[in-house]
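Two quick folds needed for the group meeting slides. Do the first one here.
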Amino acid sequence: MKLNKYISEFLGTAFLFCAVVGSGIMGQSLTNDESIILFVNATITFFALYFLISSFESYSNHFNPVVSLAFFLNKEISFKTFVLFTLLQILGAIIGVLTANIMFDVELFQLSNKNRSGFNIYLSEIIATFGLVFFILISNKDKIALIVASYIGAAYWFTSSTSFANLAGTIGRMFSDSFAGISPENVFSFGLAQIIGSIIACIVYKYFFKDSL
């Protein structure tokens, strides 16, 4: 068994959510203007996604359980690989968030009070995740880094949920009581919405696009 692809999933996810949460904490420390914080957060996430997906391209670069789920449903990875990827992605996201907490000298173990509830927000997560997975499935593999980074960077702004679209990141971000955090009470609903979005994307891809690519 090649370990590099598993280590890639752990490291990539850890660095990604260290960047997501770290940039949120940094922005929050510099200004109270949430539009500026969101711009900073989206921009840093764009760059982090682009360089991480590009760097780990030769190994494995899902960094997201709902993306791995899509690859499993399309029979591109085994169930065992899907489970291991998911566990490592969740662990990586948590480690990344805790690392950001340490770097910015905030309480290491904390739970977020950032409420992200409501039908409109959960619908946003379904749409955000559907788009992410769908565009990954239909795109040329050599353009994935730019496509994913651009899509998520944009979706930060056009979805009311600010496009988490990542189950591992959602779990990890509940350990940050910052701009980028999410209340533990909202994690299950976000996760369910993300899984639904991923499955719908796989269905649309399978029945309308797969054979024509």
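Then this one, please, same format:
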Amino acid sequence: MAPTPSILPAGDSAFLFQIGEEISTPVNERIVALADALETDAIPGLREVVPTYRSLLVCYDPERVRGAALARQVREVYDRLGPVRAAARRLTVPCLYGGEVGQDLAELAKMKGLTTDEVIALHSGAEYRVYMIGFAPGFAYLGGLPERLHTPRLTKPRQHIPAGAIGIGGQQASVNSVAGPSGWRFIGWTPVHAFDPGAKDPFLFRAGDRIRFRPVDPSEAEDLRARQAAGEVIVGIAAPDTAAGPADDRAR
């Protein structure tokens, strides 16, 4: 049985449609499904919906629709969802583990009583879910990090971490979409651009996506960087409900 939703005000032109009190894949799947349904319905006055872990931020034009009326419409759409069948894109992201950007790899391995190769095998062997985009443009919060790799964030954040840095923070993983300060622990780097403001679709990741990391060596990482700069797509993307073929299982 789906959790009973609640409506929370978020200013004079938005509200939160919240489902339950826990962070879980089934709850997040319903949030993403609701967001997709609302975007398909094109409700008058609805400006934007933003999925989060267990809630949906609903932004609207108060001159075109009253918040209470829109909340009722959103609830009606939610009630019509029925059982949610997860349909997710699957992305394969190349990752250069260690090195200058992945500066915390060796220390994290030592903390966990593992070798660096074991950390890499655990991290790259998992499938991650994009629970939400936030903090910075295109920054994806990833669930699915193996429990053995759960690690607290740094007590003192670093002032500059480059875009593409692949991090661990608590029970989550991430890919830095832009350069900036961070208290996450970083174990690798990808040449893939999670955020490209000049692209037609500037955001690579979407809530509900499934992600795997593929280890690459320094030579391949530099080759992929150059190919991306030349306009080539270097991340493998399998469409929803399809199995990744040979070309999709590697960066292209």
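Slide caption for protein two: DSSP finds five helices and 14 strands in the chain.
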